[in-house]
Amino acid sequence: APAGRAVGEGSPGGSGRRVFSPAGEFREFSRRQLRDMERLFRQYDAGKDGFIDLMELKLMMEKLGAPQTHLGLKNMIKEVDEDLDSKLSFREFLLIFRKAAAGELQEDSGLHALARLSEIDVSTEGVKGAKNFFEAKAQAINEASRFEEEIKAEQEEKKKQAEELKQRKAAFKELQSTFTQ
């Protein structure tokens, strides 16, 4: 995908489709899980077109050690191919992991093998377990605050690293000045 565009976002302007936000739509996954999934997607998107087509999926399944028949690969795509373009966008790719986390994939299916062999841990305590609407709503609020906490933790880590770098530079300058006198 060209710089600055989300994976599988489509062309700018014309289509009028809203920008896909993985973090907004797939709240059951942490930022780290989403990053791992995106890394995996990009790794096998050989054409770098924002999609995994039949041949790329074939290669992916072979590399994961679970080769599929041509028909098996077509069925894998069909199970999550919402726009019926016979290839996987990043959003459709994430649906595989959502279905895996929800236990909606048949044990012997190619998608189940993909989710299991990708080594991305999709265990979640998602909204699926909520007994009623209010519990689900409380869960969503907790998810949002957990996301904020993750973002804050990342920002704190960056601040800490910047501060350490500043201190090292100051110490180096001090050391340098003792040699130049």
Automatic annotation (TrEMBL):
The organism's place on the tree of life at top rank: Eukaryota
Domain EF-hand: 32-67, 68-103
Coiled-coil boundaries: 137-175
UniProt cross-references to CDD domains, sorted A to Z: EFh
InterPro entries registered for this protein in UniProt: AIF-1_EF_pair, EF-hand-dom_pair, EF_hand_dom, EFHD1/2
Keyword tags: Calcium, Coiled coil, Metal-binding, Repeat
Protein name stated in the entry: EFHD2 protein
One GO molecular-function entry: calcium ion binding
PANTHER family: EF-HAND DOMAIN-CONTAINING PROTEIN D, EF-HAND DOMAIN-CONTAINING PROTEIN D2
Pfam families, A to Z: AIF-1 (PF21008)
